[in-house]
Amino acid sequence: MTSVRTTCAYCGVGCGIVATKTGARTATIAGDKAHPANHGKLCSKGTHLGETIGLEGRLLTPMLGNLEASWDQALTVVARQFADTIAKHGPDSVAFYVSGQLLTEDYYVANKLMKGFIGSANIDTNSRLCMASAVAAHSRAFGEDVVPACYEDLDEADLILLVGSNTAWCHPVIWQRIEAARAARGTKLVVIDPRRTETAEGAYLHIGLRPGSDIALFNGLLAHLLPGLDRAEVEQRSQVPADYWASLEGITAETTAAACDVPLATIETLFTLVAAHPRTVTAFSMGVNQSTSGTDKASAIINLHVATGRIGSPGAAPFSITGQPNAMGGREVGGLASTLAAHMGFEAENVGRVAHFWEAPQTACKPGLKAVDLFEAVHDGRIKALWVMATNPAVSMPNAGRVREALEACPFVVVSDVIADTDTGRFAHVRLPALGWGEKDGTVTNSERRISRQRAFLAPPGEAKPDWWIVAEVAKRMGFGAAFGYAGPAAIFREHAALTAFENDGARRLDLGALATLSDAEYDAMEPYRWGGDRIALAPGEARMTTVHQPALTEGMTLNSGRYRDQWHTMTRTALSPRLSQHRREPMVEVHPLDAEEAGLLAGNLASVSSAQGEALFKVALSDGQRRGELFVPMHWTDRTGRGGRTNLLPDSRVDPASGQPGFKLTAASLAKVATEWSAFLIARAVPAEPDALWWTRIRVEGGWLVEIAGNGDPAALETLLPTGDRVKVIDSARGAKRIVVSRDDRLEAALFITRDGRLPSRDWLIAQLAEPADGAPIRYLAARAPGIQVDQGETVCVCFNVGEKRIRAAIASEGLTSVAAIGASLGAGTNCGSCRPALARLLAQMELSDAA
Ligand code: SF4
Questions:
Q1: Whose CA is nearest to atom 4 of ligand 1?
Q2: Residue 152 and residue 181 in contact, taking contact as beta carbons nearer than 8 Å
Q3: 496/775: higher pLDDT
Q4: Which ligand 1 atom sits closest to the C-alpha of 46?
Q5: Which residues contact 490 (CB under 8 A, 6 or more apart)?
Q6: Three-state secondary structure along 817-830?
Q7: Residue 849 confidence class, pLDDT cut points 50, 70, 90
């Protein structure tokens, strides 16, 4: 068995992984103790990557429509269509929409083709949806998109402000680092988030501010600190706009509390804490960025750090935490439509420099269309050929219904992906099979500017090819072969590194010149490398503050969206893991109990969430962590995983004017009960067809599939979903219930349970039977539980050790457990990846409270 050091496929923490192959398509996964981003730790998603590397659902052959094609045929069609479109309508009639899932080398080649040789800057990335506002704010403040912090700052801070970040779920290894700092040195944690998430549960202070009021909060903070600042000194070491100080006049703790709808005492506690702790890190992510004022929010945070000098020294920095594994690498090569390449913009000098380096006289000289505008241009016909790489905009873009209309109307759509059947792929004229994680080879950059190798340890499956190769082959067929004759990713990386250093002379901080001469062997062996040093040092007068004002906010009910702990984006990978699917099996709308009561909703009811753009259905979950009038839904579900839960049908297309990032987190919405006459579940060994019902979800479970269904009318059609085999059926007419079990050789093949009174048994025992040998008559499956005493362990909390909430509560009560560590010692929960530790802490706190009551 050989082990390969690589990096995780998911978030921007960029954890190092040791993958040890155990078979053709199997591997064990462990954290890389030598990787400085994670020192061996992994979260639940990284830990279970091994469950996602099979070939299920993979696209393994180029497809022209629904016909298999050779690579040469497919590439020739793509090249010809793009060339013809450009010849007839000009370079701006085509576009690439790419992804933070691409490796830096893939990104570089795609960017070079579009901006250098096609001569348009119409290449944008799904990173636009995740951190473009942070990019714009960095550029405003530092003249370049540089993250000034590093992970060690989290270890060394006395105070950490987490803003708009459910870190415990979305960046769990950073969360573990914060937990360690709290334990080791008493670092205080303040969570600034409208929702009381698991991240907020155990914080020193939670600021449950009104959604969108972050600028008011940070302006208030700085106004409070102003008397202790020497303005002349601030103006000496930074650039302060003429109207800046005046913009803070009249702001007090009282006005801040009112603007943020937070108790005055809470605001005063925050102000006192920040004043007392110069070593402050403010880490922010999507709650800040995904806003129509996201750039100003990030600027308000950076202003605080620049004005107080809390930047560039250990434990003091504003810190943008990125969402995707290689959003940063994309930023470095210029994968955003608003930058050219290697942190250079479209100034004539930069265009000339890049054109000279690439030997590409047609290099684009103006920014291209940002994601939302790009799809609008597809919709209105200005863009006539679109190539989507490694992303699923039919699900992930705001106002996704309109994006689907655009894709439907586009004369030519190419999709490169690892997955055969995605919502976006259904609109493609050509689908190209790309290599996936574990197969591809290149580099990624994490949130702290650290470049790491992502290495292959699996053979390329079928006809799948690296993204850089696919793009380069199209470029060759468009007549640009001389500039795209790469022997492999090492050659591309060297060229990228050389461009960052080209005519640089210290003008650009991104300078990878030291890596531009790596041999292939040195590239293969490359250790994680943080460019720009540990922290970005700012020369006197270099940092710029920006005057920012709190905009007016939406009145009425609003909708927020985000991630579940164990799922990633549109679930094309994480949903392959039965373990990861245990944590949250359905898309739920989280509602404050009083809002639910007003809407006549109970937990588990089906509800419609509507906006001006569309409607989506969710099961109801009551949560007193929600503010009144605010809803929260997950972003992950697609047409492939259910009917309902299609969150991004709801947000509108408004964007931040500086960054072009959409405001996903604040959508005017309404909530209404959806009546259903029956509900059902289907457990099956083989993947069942999609039900024809009002609402359903279909997820992987150990040994098979679980489908949850609800609808109206006669549910008899559900029986067509059952496989062939020996059937046992029981009907309870009085309760409107039906249970059907299908077995083969006395082993469970499928079970369909339907009810009209809303009562269905726990699914867990039946699911477990998919993995059990035949043992007794199949009729026993009708009971949906083991004979004798039933042990229902409740909703899974710890996916690593499969420990449920009821079991944990029972152990806390019977064994007198008083700490997360004690629960771990008793049940194992929380002792592997640690992703569930906040949930364990919450259960302990809840039980302490109920004991005290
Ligand atoms: Fe992967 Fe989790 Fe690390 Fe993110 S925190 S890189 S998802 S292991």
A1: 11
A2: no
A3: 496
A4: 8
A5: 518, 519, 520, 523, 524
A6: CCCHHHHHHHHCCC
A7: low
pLDDT at residue 203 in the model:
95
Q: For residues 607 and 233, what is the distance between their CA atoms, to the nearest angstrom? A: 56
Q: What is the mean pLDDT of residues 460-468?
A: 98
Mutate-to-test residue for ligand 1 from 38, 42, 101, highest number of ligand atoms within 8 A of CB: 42
Ligand 1 atom showing the smallest separation from residue 7 Cα: 6
pLDDT tens figures, 287-304: 999 999 999 999 999 999
Atom nearest to 174 CA in ligand 1? 5
Tell me how crowded residue 246 is: count the other CB atoms within 10 A of its CB: 10
pLDDT at position 777:
79
Mutate to test the pocket of ligand 1, among 10, 44, 328 (most ligand atoms within 8 A of CB): 10
Q: Over 90: is that where the pLDDT of 141 sits? A: yes
Residues with CB under 6 A from ligand 1: 8, 10-11, 13-15, 38, 42-43, 45-46, 171-173
**The pair of three-digit structure tokens given for residue 715, joined into one six-digit string:** 């549910």
Query: Which candidate, 385, 365, 383, 366, places its Cα nearest to that of 374?
Result: 383
Residue 8 C-alpha to ligand 1 middle, in angstroms? 6
pLDDT confidence of residue 252: 98
Average pLDDT over residues 122-130: 95
β-strand pairing of 678-684 with 737-744: unpaired
Q: Can you tell me whether residue 541 is helix, strand or coil?
A: coil
Share in percent of the chain as helix, strand, coil (round to 5): 35, 20, 45
